[in-house]
Automatic annotation (TrEMBL), chains A, B:
This is CoA-disulfide reductase. PANTHER family: NAD(P)H SULFUR OXIDOREDUCTASE (COA-DEPENDENT) (PTHR43429:SF1), PYRIDINE NUCLEOTIDE-DISULFIDE OXIDOREDUCTASE DOMAIN-CONTAINING (PTHR43429). PROSITE patterns: RHODANESE_1, RHODANESE_3. Residues 461-544 form the Rhodanese domain. Its cofactor is FAD. SUPFAM superfamilies: FAD/NAD(P)-binding domain (SSF51905), FAD/NAD-linked reductases, dimerisation (C-terminal) domain (SSF55424), Rhodanese/Cell cycle control phosphatase (SSF52821). InterPro entries: FAD-bd_OxRdtase, FAD/NAD-bd_sf, FAD/NAD-binding_dom, FAD/NAD-linked_Rdtase_dimer_sf, Pyr_nucl-diS_OxRdtase_dimer, Rhodanese-like_dom, Rhodanese-like_dom_sf, Thiosulphate_STrfase_CS. GO terms for molecular function: oxidoreductase activity; thiosulfate-cyanide sulfurtransferase activity. The lineage of its organism: Bacteria, Pseudomonadati, Planctomycetota, Planctomycetia, Pirellulales. Pfam families: Pyr_redox_2 (PF07992), Pyr_redox_dim (PF02852), Rhodanese (PF00581). Keywords: FAD, Flavoprotein, Oxidoreductase, Redox-active center. Belongs to the class-III pyridine nucleotide-disulfide oxidoreductase family.
Length: 546, 546
C-alpha cells in the first residue's frame, strides 16, 4: 500500500500519523509545499505578537520526528502540480531545485488547505501588504512590525484579523481594523460582539465597520489605503484577512468534484468521487452537523478528525464524519467569544423557525471574589426545543459553557435537557444553577408558556407595547428604555391598577430575572405580559448605551 | 393553596421561589431553623479563610428580598418539631421565644438538609471542636482562627475538610488533616488524588491518612487529639468534617419512608409516601443517574433542581428528577479536582464490568505559554463503550473537561461520541484534539482492539510481562519501571529482534502516546503487545516517584 498525502499540516498530518499506526508496512509520502509540515498555524498571530517567543515552538511535529518516529517520507517545498487519476500518479515539483518528478499512489489524500483570499483591489500585491498563512508570512509580519513601523491597517475583522490586531497592538503599533460587515467577527450575531467592539476600541484599536479598502497605494513613505467612504488611511503596512478559499484547483483540474463554495466534495468517509482519492481539512466542503446543509468552515478540529477518518477508511474501517458544528472560540485583549451550532443570522437566512433567549450570568458564584458577567445567547427549535446554537462573550468561563452546549448539540439534546445538566459547582468554578442550566430554564420556560418573551431588538416601532421597568427607582433613574413606566417588582402587586389591561405589557429588569417574576405576576392576574429577554442590559448593548 | 417549606437553604429556597412564580396566590411559609435563609453554604470555608471578606455577601437572598419580592412568609429561628400528617399540620418552635404553635399546610416540602456527623468519640463535644454547617459555625471558626491560635486539626479530608484546611492555612495556621481512608477526597479514586496529596503537603498541610481520632482532651492549653496509632497531636482547636447525615428524623417520626442511608425516599417528582409531602435536597435519598442505584450525595445543584421539581409537581407539572450523576469539583491551593459519574471504586464495589484509561493532556496547546498538564481518567463499559465516569486533576481547564463529559453521560453517550466532539479550539483555550477527544480516541482504540492496554496498577507480580520502555535513553536514565528494557520507539523497528515473541509485551512511554505507537508497531509484527495506560508518569504517581 502506497499512500500519498498532499499537504502536511493539520488534516494531512493527522491522516499520515493515523495511516502509519494502522499500516506499519504502508509507504506514506507527505508532500508539503511550504517549508514545514505540521506547524501550529493557529499560533501564528501569537508568534507575530511575541506571546509565543520561540519560532521553533510552532513546529509541533518536526520533520525529524515524523521521519524517525512515524517513518513518513516527508518532502517539504514539494508542490503537487498535477494528478493523473488514470495512471494514479501525482506530478511533484521540487520548489528548491525546480525539478519535477512523478509519484505513484494507491491511495491519495488531498489536504491542500485554503489560501487567504486576495480580492482584485488595485495595489493589493504591494510588498507592504501581507496575509498570514504560514511561518514565512509570520516572519515577514514580524519584520514589518519590529521595524520603525508605527501604524498598521488590517482588512477583515474575522478570527485572524482580530487576533492579528491584538498582537500588533501588543507590539505597540497603532492598528486600524477595516471590516465590510457592520460588526467584527461575522460568524457571531451582531449584538453578541458589540461588547467586544467596545472593548477592542478601548484597547486602542480603530474600528472601521461597514467599510472596505478600494485602493492601496504604496510608496517609500508607506501605504495609503483608500476606504470605500473615500477617506485615505495611512499605515506602514497592511494585513489582508478577508477569509480563505479552498485550494482545490489541483483537484478540480483532475476532475475531482467540487461544490459551489469551491471545496472538494466527499462522502462521510472523506472519499471523493474517485474512490482512491480522499480529501480532508479546509479544502473540503462538508455538511453542517445540525442541519445537514453543505458548509465550508475552516477549523482545525474538524480537519484533524477528517484526517483520521480518511486513513481509517483506507484501511477498511467504517469511520464516518458527522459534519461540522462550527464550534469556535476567539480571544482578544482578555475577553473571549465562543459559539457552537447555528447563528441567528444563518437561521434567518435559511428561513428556519427558531427562538432565542439571552442571559447575563456570571462565570462563578457572585459571592466569591472575581465573578465576571457574560452575555449568553441560546437558539432553539420552537417545536421540539432542540438546541440549534449558542454564543457567549465575556471574560471567564466562556469556552466551558459553549463546550458543554456543543456536546448537547452533538447529542441532539433539547433545552429541557439543559435544565437537568449536572455540572461542576464550587463557588470559584460555577453556580449551583450553572449558566447552562439557566439558559435551559429560560428557554424551557418560553416553550412551556411560563415566560412569554419579547426581544429587545423588536422594540423599535412597537408602540403598542406598554414598557414596564420593574427595577428599582435608582436603576431606572440611571437609564431606561424610552417610554418605559417604572414600577419596582417589589411594589407591582400593590400597583397593578397602574398597568393597562388592554395593551401588551413588555416587562424588563436589568438582566431578566425580576422581569420574569413580574411577567409571572402579571400573567396570573390576567395581563397580556411578556419579559424582555436579556433585559435592559441587552437593550443598552444593542443601543450603544453600555 | 398553602405550602409550608421546612428549611430555607438551597432546595427549600428554590422550591419557594419556583412555587411563587407558579402560584401567585399561594400562601408560602418557609420555616428556617437557623438565622438565615438561602445563605451560600458552599462559601463558608472561604469566609473562614477570608477569601470572601464580607459576611453579608454570603446572604444570597436576604429575608427582605424573599419577603418583598417573592412574598414568602420566611420565619427564621423557627424549628419544625412535629408533622401531623392526618391533620396536615406542622408544630413550630420559635427558637427566639421558645414558644410553640401549629401551622397548617396543603402541601409540605421537607428540605431539612443534612448535619455534620459527630461520631461518639470521647471529648468530641468540647468547645474547642467545631463543625461547619452554617454561618454561626463559620463565625465561631473565624473567632478561633483569628485568636492566638497557631495549630488546628481537621478530622476528615473530604470536600469540606480539604477546603477548610486550605483556608485555615491561608490564615497562617499549621494544619493537621486526619483521614480514615488511605487518601484525601474519598469520592475520587486513590491514584487521582496522589498528585493533590503531594501538593497539599508541599503547601504545609500535615496529612495523616489511614488514621482517625480516638479521643479529644481539652484544657486551657488547648486540644490534645489522640490518633488511632496512639500519637497525640496538639492543637488550639479542631474541626470535624467526617461527612453529613440527612436530617430526616422529623420526617421519619411522622411515618415518612426513609431509605437505608437515612434519607427520605421520594418518587422522581420528589413526592414522599405521603402525596401531600415532598422532600428535596440533602435530606433525600436519590438514585444514581448512571446506574439507577439508590445513593445519598449532598450536592447543591441537585438540591436546587429538586426544589424546582417539587414545586412544579405541586402545581400540576410533570417535571421529573433524573437522578444524581455525582458531578463535583474541589479546589485546593490553586489545583482542581473534578469528577462525574461513577468512580472505579464504586464500579468495583458494584462488581460492574468496566474499562479505564488514563491520559495526561495539557489544558491548552503546548506551544502557547502557560500550558499545564492534567491527569485524566475515563471509565466506560466494555461492551457498549458507554461512559460511566470521569475524573481529572490539575491546574487549569479541569472543570471544563469534566462538565463536557458530564453532559455526555447525561446523554448516555459512548467513548466513540467523545472522539467526534467538536469543542472550542484556539491555542490559549484548548487543542485541535481536545483532552475530551483524546480520552475518546484512547478508549475507542481499546474497544476496537487497536490499543490493548495494561494498567500500571497491575504491574506488581506480573513477572511474565516484558516491560518495554520506548522513551529516549535520557528519559530512561532519569527513572523507569524496574525491570524494563529501553528501546526508543524511533529505533524499535530495527531492534525488533531484541523483543521476545513468547512473552506479553507491556510497552510504555512518558504519557502513553509513544507507547501506543510502539504497541501498534509490535502488534503488526505479531507480537503480543499492550500499552501501559497513563505511561511512566502514572506509574510514577502511583509509586511515589513523582
Amino acid at each position: 500500500m502506497k499512500i500519498v498525502i498532499i499537504g502536511g499540516v493539520a488534516g494531512g498530518a493527522s491522516a499520515a500519523a493515523r495511516a502509519r499506526r494502522l499500516g506499519e508496512d504502508a509507504e506514506i509520502v507527505v508532500l508539503e509545499k511550504g517549508g514545514y509540515p505540521s506547524f501550529a498555524n493557529c499560533g501564528l498571530p501569537y508568534y507575530v505578537g511575541g506571546e509565543i517567543e520561540k519560532r521553533d515552538s510552532l513546529l509541533v511535529a518536526p520533520i525529524k520526528m515524523l521521519k524517525e518516529r512515524h517513518r513518513l517520507d516527508v518532502r517539504v517545498r514539494s508542490e503537487a502540480t498535477q494528478i493523473d487519476r488514470a495512471a494514479k500518479e501525482v506530478t511533484v515539483k521540487n520548489l528548491e531545485t525546480g525539478g519535477q518528478y512523478v509519484e505513484a499512489y494507491d491511495k491519495l489524500i488531498i489536504a491542500t488547505g485554503a489560501s487567504p483570499f486576495r480580492p482584485p483591489i488595485p495595489g493589493i500585491n504591494s510588498e507592504r501588504i501581507v496575509a498570514l498563512r504560514d511561518l514565512n508570512d509570520a516572519d515577514r509580519m514580524r519584520e514589518l512590525a519590529t521595524s520603525a513601523a508605527k501604524r498598521a491597517v488590517i482588512v477583515g475583522a474575522g478570527f485572524i484579523g482580530i487576533e492579528v490586531a491584538e498582537n500588533l497592538a501588543r507590539r505597540g503599533l497603532h492598528v486600524t481594523l477595516v471590516e465590510l460587515a457592520d460588526q467584527i467577527l461575522p460568524p457571531w450575531d451582531r449584538e453578541m460582539v458589540l461588547p467586544l467592539e467596545k472593548h477592542v476600541r478601548e484597547e486602542g484599536i480603530e474600528l472601521r465597520l461597514g467599510s472596505s479598502a478600494t485602493k492601496f497605494d504604496s510608496d517609500e513613505k508607506g501605504l495609503h489605503i483608500t476606504l470605500s467612504d473615500g477617506e485615505v488611511v495611512e499605515a506602514d503596512f497592511g494585513v489582508v484577512c478577508i477569509g480563505v478559499r479552498p485550494d482545490s484547483k489541483l483537484a478540480a483540474d483532475a476532475g475531482i468534484e467540487c461544490g459551489a463554495r469551491g471545496g472538494i466534495l466527499t462522502s462521510n468517509h472523506m472519499q471523493t468521487n474517485d474512490p482512491d482519492i480522499y480529501a480532508v481539512g479546509d479544502v473540503v466542503e462538508t455538511v453542517c452537523a445540525v442541519t445537514g446543509d453543505p458548509i465550508q468552515i475552516p477549523l482545525a478540529g474538524p480537519a484533524n478528525r477528517q484526517g483520521r477518518i480518511a486513513a481509517d477508511h483506507i484501511f477498511g474501517r467504517d469511520s464516518k464524519y458527522r459534519g461540522t458544528q462550527g464550534t469556535a472560540v476567539v480571544g482578544v485583549f482578555g475577553k473571549t467569544a465562543a459559539m457552537t451550532g447555528l447563528s441567528e443570522k444563518v437561521l434567518r437566512a435559511k428561513k428556519t423557525d427558531y427562538l432565542k433567549v439571552f442571559l447575563h450570568p456570571t462565570d462563578h458564584a457572585g459571592y466569591y471574589p472575581g465573578a465576571q458577567q457574560m452575555l449568553m445567547k441560546l437558539l432553539f427549535a420552537p417545536d421540539t426545543g432542540r438546541i440549534l446554537g449558542a454564543q457567549a462573550v465575556g471574560t471567564s468561563g466562556i469556552d466551558k459553557r459553549i463546550d458543554v452546549i456543543a456536546m448537547a448539540i452533538q447529542a441532539e439534546m433539547t433545552v429541557f435537557d439543559l435544565e437537568e445538566a449536572e455540572l461542576c459547582y464550587a463557588p470559584q468554578y460555577g453556580h449551583a444553577k450553572d449558566p447552562v442550566n439557566m439558559a435551559g430554564f429560560i428557554a424551557s420556560g418560553v416553550l412551556r408558556g411560563d415566560q412569554p418573551i419579547v426581544q429587545a431588538d423588536a422594540l423599535t416601532n412597537a408602540e403598542d407595547l406598554f414598557l414596564l421597568d420593574v427595577r428599582t427607582e435608582g436603576e431606572f433613574a440611571k437609564g431606561h428604555i424610552p417610554g418605559a413606566t417604572n414600577i419596582p417588582v417589589e411594589q407591582l402587586r400593590e400597583r397593578l391598577a397602574e398597568v393597562p389591561k388592554d395593551r401588551k405589557i413588555a416587562a424588563y429588569c436589568q438582566v431578566g430575572q425580576r422581569g420574569y417574576l413580574a411577567t409571572r405576576i402579571l400573567l396570573q392576574h390576567d395581563f397580556d405580559a411578556a419579559n424582555i429577554s436579556g433585559g435592559y442590559r441587552l437593550w443598552a448593548i444593542e443601543n450603544g448605551k453600555l
